[in-house]
């Protein structure tokens, strides 16, 4: 006997939103979403109401007013009559400067220490352990302050260089002055300079580009391009004939001759620091605040990177080392050509977060009076204009953009080196 | 149900907004303590002594207000603030008043929405240099490295001064007075600049104060005074008239020594009104009749506070100068108690 029953009608009732498992999760998510949005709206509304009561409705017009304060370390031209926007831009550049310098140094030290910590030499391995544990377990702010205190208290003041029998003298054939106000190193100067290109006119974001630098970079780029061509040719010959032609002299010539000629044409010479009046004049001044911040951030982050590198190396199976040794490779080469490339895949992702940490930690700069973006936009500008909410929001946005950019670049690199599975 | 959430949110928002706007006096009374913002440490103006007790000229103002409102000069919670944090602390309500040698300027009053209730010290920005530099005028400072506290008006004055005199300098921004002192003494900067009173106070703590000189130039007007938030005039009045009570007391010769007998009644009606034996000034402020008496007894009148903390008999050794009573040719002047 066959009975035909109609399939049950899929009628929708409201109660199904709660009792039907097909819809329940959606209902919960929708309610949570509405709740979250209400909470966010309440927060924003509350803030706006309170700010309005105080008579401080958010506005960003203050950015175009003259800042009125000076900044000691300037990567672009700036004076106290420039706008708050320009002051913030200078701060941003200072943040980027110390972040880039810090990331590079931290990586170099970190990789070295990480490898050395695995050394079979007991003393070297233990010293590296002590270094890592010391730096990783003390807050970075203390390292920054300590570095600054050491620089200020232990190095001679410029006045010690003065007089017949000065207490202090310049180093490296009188070219470098190490003082407690910073280190003065010779600067490159051009007597037949090609000048600068001024971009963006008189606006707050204006900047100059040195034509000398561009010319130098172009020539250098062409030289390197030539060198790769020579090497490619040598490789081709090696592959066809089995004999590799000597390329060393051609490479050296290609590298040094064109750039040398360009520098000679531009009238390249070094400007040396000289004690004039209260301070050293001339040369490039690397301020104490920059050095202290850079050193402390690099050494601190390097300790973490060292552990990541060590972990990465240990993650590569020991069989790889044994295989390489069986092929007759020396241990240095094994490390460089076999272990490290494989370890990189493990190392890169946690490395990203360390670079981000270093960049964010650079906001401690104010402890040593380094004028980064927290010091200019989030410090003096905020204080002089009283726009706390606006400046802090802008500050957060800046750090967010920097961090996301670093993540993006590093993720791109990670995708390139990661194991390609076929 | 959704509706009630929305209304609930609105109610809470409204209450929060209302609470931020008014009633500081009631808040202080209910709390039983005055939250007073001071410096992180400037000897003579506000610094903890060996026993951890806050002492100084600005601290005296805090104690006077606490005594006037709560009857107890010790009922103060001192909140150390830096040049950078002070305004946020006041605007957010973390502190009830700020007495931190803060300069009264147009933009702070109008744009930052604060009410300066008066001036307790007329100051100006000066420069301190080591004697061995042989500098006798600030105009000789071309190319010098200058230590400066960041987030202050001095920063702007400094930029203006060097700009208008067409000379260059290298600013070294510093967060607190103590750090500035360290850098200056180590020779990391040639010059330290801040309010002249602050320089004198800092120099007094040096091992050898005579090795440092203050340059003759005073490059700005710095009227320093206590301030409160805009929008709570009742509280502003309490702080303003507590300060005025100290000034008037000096003018009328009321000191912490003779206040006991004077409070019983004198034949000068203004003293009687001030000390509460006549009239109802305290009631008008929402305080009890002995408010001014308590304020004066907290640390003495204006002159006593000055002499005891920063005057010529102290290591800081500041002369009254502009800060003498108007009757002695100074600028210290209180409106009448009437």
TrEMBL record, chain A:
SUPFAM superfamilies: MetI-like (SSF161098). Keywords: Amino-acid transport, Cell membrane, Membrane, Transmembrane, Transmembrane helix, Transport. Residues 92-410 form the ABC transmembrane type-1 domain. It is found in: Cell inner membrane; Cell membrane. The chain crosses the membrane at residues 23-44, 96-118, 130-152, 209-227, 248-271, 291-316, 362-380, 392-413. It is a multi-pass membrane protein. PROSITE patterns: ABC_TM1. Its main location: membrane. Belongs to the binding-protein-dependent transport system permease family. HisMQ subfamily. This is L-glutamine ABC transporter membrane protein /L-glutamate ABC transporter membrane protein /L-aspartate ABC transporter membrane protein /L-asparagine ABC transporter membrane protein.
Automatic annotation (TrEMBL), chain B:
Residues 33-262 form the Solute-binding protein family 3/N-terminal domain. Residues 1-21 form the signal peptide. The keyword Zinc-finger does not apply. Coiled coil: none annotated. It comes from the Bacteria. The keyword Transmembrane helix does not apply. Keywords: Signal, Transport. InterPro entries: Bact_solute-bind_prot3, Solute-binding_3/MltF_N. PANTHER family: AMINO ACID ABC TRANSPORTER PERMEASE, AMINO-ACID ABC TRANSPORTER-BINDING PROTEIN YHDW-RELATED. Belongs to the bacterial solute-binding protein 3 family. This is L-glutamine-binding protein /L-glutamate-binding protein /L-aspartate-binding protein /L-asparagine-binding protein.
């Amino acid at each position: 006997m066959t009975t035909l029953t109609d399939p049950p009608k899929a009628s929708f009732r409201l109660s199904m939103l709660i009792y039907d498992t097909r819809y329940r999760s959606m209902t919960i998510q929708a309610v949570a979403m509405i709740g979250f949005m209400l909470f966010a709206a309440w927060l924003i509304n509350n803030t706006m109401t309170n700010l309005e009561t105080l008579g401080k409705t958010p506005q960003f017009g203050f950015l175009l007013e003259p800042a009125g304060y000076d900044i000691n370390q300037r990567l672009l031209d700036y004076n106290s009559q420039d706008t708050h926007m320009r002051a913030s831009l200078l701060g941003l550049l200072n943040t980027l400067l110390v972040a880039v310098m810090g990331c590079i140094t931290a990586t170099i030290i970190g990789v070295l220490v990480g490898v050395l910590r695995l050394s079979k030499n007991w003393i070297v391995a233990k010293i590296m352990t002590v270094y890592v544990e010391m730096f990783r377990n003390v807050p970075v702010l203390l390292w920054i302050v300590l570095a600054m205190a050491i620089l200020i208290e232990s190095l001679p003041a410029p006045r010690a260089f003065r007089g017949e029998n000065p207490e202090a003298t310049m180093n490296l054939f009188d070219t470098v002055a190490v003082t407690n106000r910073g280190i003065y190193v010779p600067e490159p100067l051009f007597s037949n300079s090609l000048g600068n290109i001024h971009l963006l006119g008189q606006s707050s974001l204006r900047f100059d580009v040195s034509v000398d630098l561009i010319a130098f970079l172009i020539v250098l780029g062409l030289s390197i391009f030539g060198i790769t061509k020579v090497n490619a040719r040598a490789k081709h010959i090696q592959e066809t004939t089995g004999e590799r032609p000597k390329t060393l002299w051609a490479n050296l010539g290609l590298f040094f001759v064109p750039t040398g000629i360009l520098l000679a044409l531009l009238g390249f010479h070094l400007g040396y620091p000289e004690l004039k009046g209260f301070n050293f004049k001339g040369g490039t001044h690397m301020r104490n605040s920059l050095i202290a911040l850079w050193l402390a951030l690099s050494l601190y982050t390097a300790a973490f990177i060292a552990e990541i590198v060590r972990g990465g190396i240990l993650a590569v199976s020991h069989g790889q080392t044994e295989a390489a040794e069986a092929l007759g490779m020396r241990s240095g080469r094994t490390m460089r050509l076999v272990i490290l490339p494989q370890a990189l895949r493990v190392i890169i992702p946690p490395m990203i977060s360390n670079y981000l940490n270093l960049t964010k930690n650079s906001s401690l700069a104010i402890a040593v009076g380094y004028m980064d973006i927290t010091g200019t936009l989030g410090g003096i500008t905020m204080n002089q204009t009283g726009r706390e909410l606006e400046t802090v929001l802008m500050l957060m946005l800046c750090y967010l953009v920097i961090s996301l950019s670093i993540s993006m670049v590093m993720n791109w690199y990670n995708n390139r080196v990661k194991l390609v599975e076929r | 149900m959704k509706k009630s959430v929305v209304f609930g949110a609105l109610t809470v928002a409204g209450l929060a907004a209302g609470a931020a706007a008014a009633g500081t006096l009631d808040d202080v009374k209910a709390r039983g303590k005055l939250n007073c913002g001071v410096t992180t440490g400037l000897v003579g103006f506000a610094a903890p002594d060996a026993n951890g007790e806050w002492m100084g000229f600005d601290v005296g103002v805090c104690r006077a207000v606490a005594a006037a409102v709560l009857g107890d000069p010790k009922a103060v919670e001192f909140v150390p603030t830096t040049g950078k944090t002070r305004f946020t602390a006041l605007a957010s309500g973390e502190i009830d008043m700020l007495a931190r040698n803060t300069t009264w300027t147009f933009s702070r009053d109008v744009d930052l929405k604060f009410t300066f209730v008066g001036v307790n010290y007329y100051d100006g920005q000066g420069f301190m240099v080591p004697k061995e530099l042989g500098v006798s005028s600030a105009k000789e400072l071309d190319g010098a490295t200058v230590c400066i506290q960041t987030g202050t008006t001095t920063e702007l004055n400094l930029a203006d001064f060097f700009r208008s005199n067409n000379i260059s300098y290298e600013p070294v921004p510093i967060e607190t007075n103590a750090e500035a002192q360290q850098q200056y003494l180590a020779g990391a900067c040639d010059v330290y600049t801040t309010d002249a009173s602050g320089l004198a106070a800092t120099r007094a703590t040096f091992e050898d104060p005579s090795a440092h000189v203050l340059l003759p130039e005073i490059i700005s007007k710095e009227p320093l005074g206590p301030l409160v938030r805009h929008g709570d005039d009742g509280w502003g009045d309490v702080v303003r008239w507590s300060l005025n009570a100290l000034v008037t007391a000096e003018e009328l010769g009321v000191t912490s020594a003779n206040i006991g007998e004077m409070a019983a009644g004198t034949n000068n009606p203004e003293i009687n009104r001030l000390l509460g034996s006549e009239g109802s000034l305290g009631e008008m402020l929402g305080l009890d009749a002995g408010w001014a008496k308590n304020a004066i007894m907290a640390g003495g009148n204006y002159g006593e506070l000055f002499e005891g903390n920063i005057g010529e008999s102290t290591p800081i050794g500041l002369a009254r100068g502009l800060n003498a009573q108007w009757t002695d040719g100074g600028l210290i002047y209180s409106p009448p108690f009437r």
